[in-house]
Amino acid sequence: MAKTDLHITRVVKTASDPSAAARSRLAASWRRSLDHHGLDPGQRGDVQRITEMELAQRREKSEVMHRIALPKLDSLYQLVGSSGCGVLLTDAEGVVLDLRAADGDRAVFETWGLTPGSDWSEASEGTNGIGTCIAESRRVIIHRDEHFHARNTGMSCMDAPIFGPEGELIGALDVSSARADQTEAFNRLIAAQVAQTARQIEVDTFRAAFPKARIIVADNDDSDAAMLLAVDGDDLLLGATRGARRAFGLSASGPIRSTPASDLFGREAGPTGFEKAERAAVVRALSRADGNVSEAARALGIGRATLYRRMKRLGIGESGSDLSHS
To answer: Cβ distance 239 to 222 under 8 Å?
Structure first.
C-alpha cells in the first residue's frame, strides 16, 4: 500500500474511534476534520485562497496587530530562515496575512499554499498548525504525518495563538518547514521561540490599546502567558490580558467591569506576583527620580498623594528619611 493510502487509512480509522479522540488531542482534531468539517484526508485540491481585495480588507481589520508584528516577524525569520523555514502571520480565522521566506524557498511555499491569502483554518485544511492552534487556542506542533490531509504530510508547523487586548483571539504566528530532515527536537526549539514572539506581539498590542494607562506586569513562570493589567489614575481596572484574566477569575474576553485594582491584589487565593510587580515599579520610579516623590508620581502617571498611599501600603520609605518630598 502506498504511503499516501496508509496515511488516509490511519487517519480515518483513528478519527472514527471515539475512545481515541478522548485520549489524544491529535485524534480529536482528526475527528473534527472528518466529522464536523466533512473533509477527506485524501483530498488533492489546492489550498483555498481569498481574493486580493478580501486580503486587503483582512489586513486592514488586523492593522494594529499586523503593524506591531512586522518587526517581530523579521526578527523571528532571522533566527529560522536559514534552515529553510518560513514565518507566517494569520488573522483569527486562519487566513495568512504575511510571509517571511528566503527567495529560494518561496516557490516551495507557493506550492504548499503557504502564502498570503491562503486559508489554513481547520475547517478548510483539517488538522494543521495554524488551524488547530486557532481551533484550540493553544500552541501546537503538527509534524509531517500528524496533518489531516495526506498532501500536507511533507511539512512541519509550529504555531502559537495571539490574543488581543480584550482576551480575544486575534491571530496566530506560524513557522513552517517542508524540509524532509526537519526533526521533532528541532521543532520543539522553534516552537519555544514562536511562543515567545507571539507573547511579545500580544504584550505590545495590549500596551497600544491602553496608551494612557499604567501597565502592571506580574511575575509569572508561565512563559506562554502575558500577564498584564491596565489601570487608570484612580487605580481602576481598565483591561487585562488573557493570562491575567485567567489568573484573577475575570471574564475570559470582552470589556472588563471597572474594579479597584487593589481588590484584585488583595485576594488571598490569587497570585502574589502583581503586588510584587507593583512594588518593584514604584521602587524603580523613585530610584530614577532620586527619591523625589513628586517626580516619581509624574513618571507613574498618578498623583503624589496616591503614590504616598501606595508607598505606605507597600512598605516603601515609610520613615521618609531617604526620600525627597519636594
So the answer is: no
Q: What is the DSSP letter of 249?
A: T
Nearest to 69 by CA among 191, 195, 183, 202: 202
Which residues, 6 or more positions from 238, have their beta carbon under 8 angstroms from its beta carbon?
210, 213, 230, 231, 232, 256, 258
pLDDT per residue as tens digits for the range 221-234: 554 688 999 998 88
Whole-prediction pTM value? 0.80
For the chain, give every domain's residue range. Answer: 3-207, 214-314
CA 133 to each of CA 122, 142, 275: distance values in angstroms, whole numbers, following the listed order: 9, 9, 33
Q: CA 35 to CA 56: how far, in whole Å?
A: 32
Of 251, 69, 267, 273, give the one whose Cα is nearest residue 174: 69
Cα–Cα distance for residue pair 110/118, rounded to 1 Å: 10
- On the 0-12 / 13-18 / 19+ scale of CB atoms within 10 A, 149 is buried
Q: 191 burial class (0-12, 13-18, 19+ CB within 10 angstroms)?
A: buried
Amino acid at position 320, single letter? G
**Best CATH choice for the domain 3-207 from the list 3.30.565.10, 3.30.450.40, 3.40.605.10, 3.40.228.10:** 3.30.450.40
Instruction: Average pLDDT across each block of 10 residues of the chain; the chain has 326 residues. List them in order.
Output: 91 94 95 97 94 98 98 96 94 98 92 96 98 97 96 95 97 91 85 96 97 83 76 89 91 88 62 68 87 89 87 71 46
d(C-alpha 3, C-alpha 179), whole Å: 18
DSSP secondary structure letters along 113-181: T-STTBB--HHHHSS-HHHHHHHHTS-EEEEGGGSSSGGGTT-EEEEEEEE-TTS-EEEEEEEEE--TT
